[in-house]
Amino acid sequence: METISFIVGLLYQYADTIALLALSAIGLIIIFGMMGVINMAHGEMMMIGAYITSFAHYAGIPTALAVILGGIGAGLAGMIIERLVIRRFYGQLLSSLVATWGLSLILSQGALLVFGQLIQSVPTPFGSFTVGELSYSYYRMFIFLVAMAMIAGLWALFRFTRFGVRARATMENPRMARALGVDTSRVYALTFGLGTMLGGFAGGLLALTSTIGPFYGMTYTPQAFITVVVGGGAEIVTGLLASVLSLGAIKTIFMNQTNILLGHVAMLVLAFVIIRLMPSGISDWVERRQVRVRER
Amino acid sequence: MSRATGFRPSWKWAVVPLALAAAGLFSTTDAAAEDPIKICVIDDHSGDFALIVKPKTLGYETAIAEINEAGGVLGRQLEMVFYDGQSDVKRHQELAQKCILDDEVDVIMAGATSSAREAARAVAVENEVIYWHNNQGEGGIADKYSFFTGPIPEQQILTGVSYMIEKYGPKMYILAADYGFGQVSALWTHAAAGLYGGEVVGEEFIPLGNSDFAATIANIQKAKPDFGVFYLVGGAQYNYYPQAAAAGANIPAVSTVNVQQGYEHKRYPPPALVDMYIPFAFVEETPTDSARAFVEKARAINPDEPYINQMTRCAYVAIHMMALAWERAGTTETQATIAALESGLSFAAPEGPVFLDPATHHLTMDIRMGRVNENHDLEFVHDFGAIEPWWLRTLGVNLVRTDEARQFLPWDDPRLAQYKTE
């Protein structure tokens, strides 16, 4: 019984860590992979999703719908931002970093000025369950499943839809795609909208278990950033999965066996090692090996 | 016989220089009356600590408005020179320098966290400017230029922990923010456990900014404590409460920072904070008429402030203490003002009378115990009465005679050091 409860505890924490990493990074990695743009304002997209979720919840809208509204709202905000700012920085990693960082400051400080230091938290649904002597939250397991479903959905979207084919073509070789009649600027706008929508949706989901304030997104931005850099932009789904599974595993083990600080440190050390060995991330490294195998 | 007609001194002539002197005196006073007394305030209005620190500024504003309406201090108005510390330690240091060098302020009130406090305080002390820290803290600082309005461990931790041991049993689990304040408070908790027959069954230090508590919640459940002792600081760390509640893992707990500063009981839906106990000097719900009047006064200045917290009260008391000292000294000159501050000042604080202890520069204040109930309302379960800042005095600290210019830790006291674990 002791070992079972230990294993369940560890698995729960692993799933929980994976969910947090995946949810915070999923929108970011799409934008990075497709457009070579790192959106430092991604955390603020999550914040927008969380705010809309809280306002909608307290306006009497069912919670599930409130979270979806959060995603849609952030997606729309993202498309506006793409039109006004991002459009000018495609493929310019460093300039886009600075521009979106500025955007992040404007959005979070703007939220502080308009809505004050905090807004009401939304109660966590579903209650808890007990295994052995420890009790766990159903909702945290639910968001793990949702995160996995989102990754699967993303894979299906890029694999089976017309948008997916055009998006992959644009990613692979934008000039060629344009020559073949793909409206790449529309693809970019839609991808950015999709990325920010997923960010807003993730923000809404996480809002149900956390404090919501103007700097809500900033607690997720660093880990999202690390996850994306480790995953790389060559193949979004593989990169994201490989990244969250490896970073999540090391963080969980160290947190469980030592303490939170060493958990964070271990994750950063692993990220450092991975980036040292595979400078463009795991997915890029995998892709190059595949190409090499094919060429043989 | 004619009398000499030369100049003859007479008492009447003495009037001339006197009149001149008086005119000069009045004219300088007039010039000074145009100059306000400058109070440098550095509070975090953005970043992780904005939520708990913003109400502090309201406390300064309330006191300054009150004093200025009544004619100011020494015939001069008070003026707040405000800067946003942005929850950034380095910025506190730079802004404190700016306050002294550019603004030439008469006093500095800055820093909420112990790290920001030390950054600003070092600058103030180095430049021989009076410094006030206006929220609860880990105590132990004995310094000629530094003054404190917030409750300290002998007022909050010893009282709170002994109450919890009596009510729930001896086993406690410490959760503390991983920096100066959290670490020293944890040491005090070990000492309190030793003094009152308790036992620390687990202890965890949480990095600032950490918002994920799955591992911590499991660790607490495994240790099976009778109650928790929580020193969680900053917006991210508050996430512990909804996450523990969602996992059905709430335990009764005592905290010296939560609720009285971060009003978590108002921000989270029940049952996240149920059975949280707080030993406090002031909360918005403090059950005294003067506290209610104070809350009303502060709300009149800023109706949008969601919660009037302990920091609001500390800031308010600090301004009034300085006003009393300047009036008593008859000047804003630093050494004379310190002498006045060390002359035994008392003030009717919102929760009850406070007394500024000359020997330690900390306050004697009323401490009450509150409990967050099932509806997330605050109930008052115990009154500890007025508690003096006695600990530094028992170590022989007397700032009136000797400037110590240092911070004492619990282990500097042999009576507490015997409970040191490791």
Layout of helices and strands, plus pairs?
The complex is a heterodimer of chains A (296) and B (422).
Chain A: H1 2-35, H2 42-58, H3 63-84, H4 93-115, E1 128-131, E2 134-137, H5 138-160, H6 162-172, H7 174-179, H8 184-207, H9 221-231, H10 236-257, H11 260-277, H12 282-295
Antiparallel strand pairs in A: 1-2
Chain B: H1 15-34, E1 37-43, H2 50-69, E2 78-84, H3 89-101, E3 107-110, H4 114-126, E4 130-133, E5 141-142, E6 146-148, H5 153-168, E7 171-177, H6 180-195, E8 199-206, H7 214-223, E9 227-231, H8 240-246, E10 253-255, H9 264-267, E11 276-280, H10 289-301, H11 310-329, H12 334-341, E12 346-349, E13 352-356, E14 363-372, E15 378-387, H13 391-394, E16 406-407, H14 414-417
Parallel strand pairs in B: 1-2, 1-3, 3-4, 4-6, 7-8, 7-9, 9-10, 10-11
Antiparallel strand pairs in B: 5-16, 11-14, 12-13, 13-14, 14-15
What does this structure look like?
The complex is a heterodimer of chains A (296) and B (422). With 296 residues, chain A is an all-alpha fold. Chain A has one domain (2-215). Chain A has helices at residues 2-35, 42-58, 63-84, 93-115, 138-160, 162-172, 174-179, 184-207, 221-231, 236-257, 260-277, 282-295; strands at 128-131, 134-137. Chain A is globular and about 60 Å long. The N and C termini of chain A lie far apart (52 Å). The model of chain A has no long low-confidence stretch (mean pLDDT 86). Chain B has 422 residues and is α/β, with parallel strands linked by helices. Chain B folds into two domains: 33-150 and 285-364 and 388-407, Rossmann fold (3-Layer(aba) Sandwich); 154-284, Rossmann fold (3-Layer(aba) Sandwich), CATH 3.40.50. Chain B has 14 helices and 16 strands. In chain B, strands 7, 8, 9, 10, 11, 12, 13, 14 and 15 form a nine-stranded mixed β-sheet that branches. Chain B has a five-stranded parallel β-sheet with strand order 2-1-3-4-6, with helices on both faces. In chain B, helix 4 links the parallel strand 3 and strand 4 (130-133). The longest helix of chain B is centred in the first third of the chain and has 20 residues, at 15-34. Chain B starts with 14 loop residues before the first helix and ends in a 5-residue tail after the last helix. Residues 1-7 and 20-32 of chain B have low confidence and may be disordered. Chains A and B meet through helix 1, strand 2, helix 10 and helix 11 of A and helix 2, strand 8, helix 7 and helix 8 of B.
